[in-house]
Amino acid sequence: MLLELRDEELLARVLGGDANAYRELVVRYQSLIFTLCLKMLADREEARDAAQEVFLQAYRSLGEFQGGAQFRSWLYKIAANKCIDIRRKQARRAGIASISPLQEDLPRSADPTPEEQLLATERSRELQAAIDELPEKYRDVVILYHYQRLSYKQIAEILGIEVKSVETRMSRAKKMLRERLRKEEQDDDELARRRSAERISGQ
Predict the structure, then answer these.
(1) Is 38 helix (H, G, I), strand (E, B) or coil?
(2) Of 43, 59, 52, which is closest to residue 10 (Cα–Cα)?
C-alpha cells in the first residue's frame, strides 16, 4: 500500500508516472504546508491558495529535487519562499512592510486554573503582538523554529542563508522580544499603580 511507502519510494513512483503516489505525498504533507503558510500569511484563504501552488510547483520541479535532502524540507523551502514572495508583493502594493499576526496561542500547562488561563491568554496575545512587530527576516526565523520545529540547518536551507546567520537572527529576535515584553510589563505596572491611586483618591 502507498501509505506504507517511504517518501523516497513514493517519489520514485511519481517520477515513473504514478500520479496516485504524488496524491499520497500531498495527503501526507498538506496539513503541515497549510499550517506554515497560515503562520506566514495569517489569512486562511491566502494560505490555502499558497499551499495548492506549493504542491503544483513541487510537482513541476520534481526533476530538480536532490534525493539527498528530505522531501519535507524541500517542500518547506518552496512554501516559505512562496509566502515570502506573496508578502513582498503585498508590501509593494501597500507601500508598507507586510506584517501579520500569528493565529496560535502558546502551549498551556495541564489543568490550569481560570486565573492561569486568563494570564496565559494575555501573555500569548502580548507575545503574538511582539512577534508581529519584528522585522520580517527575524519573524520568519522565529516562526520556522518555534512553531514549525525546524532545525537551524533546515531554516538556513529554506531561507537560503548560512546557519550562523540563522543563529544571529534568532539571538537578535529574542533580544527584541524580551525588550518589548519588558517594556509592556513596566507600562502595565505603571497603569495599575495609577488606577489604584485614582481609586484611593476617589474614596
Answers:
(1) helix
(2) 59
Q: How far apart are the C-alpha atoms of 38 and 43, rounded to whole Å?
A: 6
Instruction: Express the helix, strand and coil content of the chain in percent, nearest 5 each.
Output: 80, 0, 20
Among candidates 61, 76, 80, which has minimal Cα distance to 11? 61
Q: Nine-digit cell at 157? A: 536551507
pLDDT in tens, 12-26: 899 899 989 999 999
User: Does the predicted model carry a pTM greater than 0.90?
Assistant: no
Rounded Cα gap, residues 159 and 69, in angstroms: 15
Q: Which tens digits make up the pLDDT trace of 123-167?
A: 667 777 788 788 878 888 887 887 667 789 888 877 878 999 999
Which domains are assigned to the chain?
Answer: 1-99 (1.10.1740.10), 104-203 (1.10.10.10)
